[in-house]
């Protein structure tokens, strides 16, 4: 925690411990429900989380300290109000703080939520910096602030809201609104986007959805307008979508279901993107998953063809120069990608998980073992690491010194550091 005063470290540590203790021992019977008269209700919830992240990098010329330590704390208050089954209001207020904030590339890699990229549609910030220095950032913001009006078969949602599309587990090419990164530790709350959303029920198993997401100052080149129809066909959920996303015209769909009575699940997504002043792209994903009977393990496999990706390390620089990677929320360089996952309940309060991401053309990979422990009904802890396998970058020193352009990327996952993380979570619910 280089550069952080000891008094500030002590205050933040005390906040972490105090917040956790308060939520851990909060009364469970009436902590969340403030008022309920049937059709009118008021609910209050809260979470407090702390994520410690340690990175160990490969050798970089003139960089003596190859270890980077980051601590990420966030507290969230959640208020849900409803009246007469016609109006509903969702408000999420949060404060989050970074000690030694990570570089943007680290966040894009998928370990941490991306808080300010082109994938986040926000007309205005609705956030304020409490304190900011070179190695400390403390922010308060509204992550959700949405009003829902329901009438007949229509739901109209306006404001900052979470929008989740797609069926993929590691990657979601049809999720156009701030998707989670494949290695993101905390996937509980998706980032809120400023949007006007209309959901129309067309039948018992069919609905149409229209989304207008507002970028900064409602600039069309930073906004999105997409329509989607979802239905059930022979036990398969099927969706078709189309519209525009920033400077792209997009069309695609997704599906999910079971392969007969085998117990094997199958899901997939496809997306075509017509990009202004750039080549068009096609994305395709297919995955299989299976849960063994009883308390057996869960297995998952996904293949993702990323049309904007490179087929060899020489093409990584061109991919990085393409702003399209920022509009999808996470950094991905390779064209052919494989994701493998397994989870198993080791004990009733202990879950073990192991994920592997592979760039099939480098080749390179990253291993991600994780343990999740249930401390109490309203508290949990996660411990894990990521182990990169692949050739690290090489650097060419120019007369003017070292710059990013002097780095040659020899593999995708070889550019990742070794990462160790510990997260604790407390809930008021």
Describe, in short, the structure shown.
With 429 residues, the protein is mainly beta.
Characteristic key phrases:
single chain; 429 residues; mainly beta; Porin; 3 helices; globular
Describe, in plain words, how this protein is organized in 3D.
This protein has 429 residues and is mainly beta. Helices cover 7% and strands 52% of the residues. It contains three helices and 22 strands. A hairpin with a 2-residue loop joins strand 5 and strand 6 (136-151). It is globular, with a radius of gyration of 22 Å. The two termini are 33 Å apart. The model is unreliable at 104-109 (pLDDT under 50).
- The CATH class label is Mainly Beta
Q: Poorly predicted ranges (pLDDT <50, ≥5 residues)?
A: 104-109
User: Which class best fits the helix and strand makeup?
Assistant: mainly beta
Number of strands: 22
Give the distance, in angstroms, between the N- and C-terminal Cα atoms: 33 Å
Give me the oligomer status. Answer: single chain
Mean model confidence by pLDDT:
85
CATH superfamily: Porin
The CATH topology name reads Porin
Give the biggest sheet. Answer: 18 strands, antiparallel, barrel
Count helical runs.
3
Which CATH architecture is right?
A: Beta Barrel
- Radius of gyration, taken over Cα atoms and rounded to an integer in Å: 22 Å
Percentage of β-strand residues:
over 45%
- Spatial shape: globular
Q: What is the helix/strand order?
A: HEEEEHEEEEEEEEEEEHEEEEEEE
What's the number of structural domains?
Answer: 1
Q: Helix coverage percent of residues?
A: under 10%
């Amino acid at each position: 925690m280089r550069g952080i005063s000891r008094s500030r470290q002590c205050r933040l540590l005390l906040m972490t411990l105090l917040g956790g203790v308060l939520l851990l021992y909060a009364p469970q019977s009436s902590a969340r429900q403030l008022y309920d008269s049937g059709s009118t209700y008021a609910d209050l919830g809260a979470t407090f989380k702390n994520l410690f992240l340690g990175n160990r990098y490969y050798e970089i010329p003139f960089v003596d300290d190859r270890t980077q330590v980051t601590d990420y704390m966030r507290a969230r208050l959640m208020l849900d109000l409803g009246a007469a089954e016609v109006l509903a209001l969702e408000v999420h207020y949060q404060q989050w703080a970074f000690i030694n904030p990570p570089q943007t590339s680290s966040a894009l890699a998928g370990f941490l939520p991306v808080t300010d990229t082109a994938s986040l549609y926000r007309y205005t910030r609705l956030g304020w910096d409490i304190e900011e220095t070179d190695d400390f950032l403390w922010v308060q913001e509204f992550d959700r602030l949405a009003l829902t009006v329901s009438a007949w078969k229509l739901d109209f949602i306006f404001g900052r809201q979470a929008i989740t599309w797609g069926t993929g587990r590691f990657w979601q090419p049809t999720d156009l609104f701030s998707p989670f990164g494949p290695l993101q530790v905390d996937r509980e709350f998706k980032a809120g986007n400023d949007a006007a959303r209309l959901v129309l029920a067309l039948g018992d198993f069919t609905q149409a959805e229209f989304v207008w997401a507002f970028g900064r100052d409602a600039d069309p080149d930073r906004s999105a307008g997409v329509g989607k129809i979802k239905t059930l066909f022979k036990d398969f959920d099927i969706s078709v979508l189309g519209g525009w996303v920033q400077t792209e015209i997009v069309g695609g769909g997704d599906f999910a279901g079971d392969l007969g009575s085998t117990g094997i699940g199958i899901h997939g997504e496809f997306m075509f993107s017509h990009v202004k002043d750039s080549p068009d792209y096609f994305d395709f994903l297919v995955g299989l998953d299976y849960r063994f009977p009883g308390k057996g393990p869960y297995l998952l496999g996904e293949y993702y063809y990323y049309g904007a990706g490179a087929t060899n390390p020489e093409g990584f620089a061109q991919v990085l120069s393409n702003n399209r990677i920022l509009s999808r929320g996470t950094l991905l360089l390779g064209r052919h990608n494989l994701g493998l996952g397994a989870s198993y309940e080791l004990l009733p309060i202990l879950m073990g998980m192991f994920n592997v991401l592979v760039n099939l053309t480098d080749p390179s990979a990253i291993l991600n073992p994780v343990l999740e422990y249930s401390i109490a009904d309203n508290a949990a802890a996660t411990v894990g690491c990521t182990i990169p396998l692949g050739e690290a970058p090489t650097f060419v020193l120019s007369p003017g010194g070292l710059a990013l352009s002097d780095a040659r990327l020899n593999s995708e996952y070889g550019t990742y550091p070794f990462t160790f993380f510990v997260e604790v979570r407390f809930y008021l619910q």
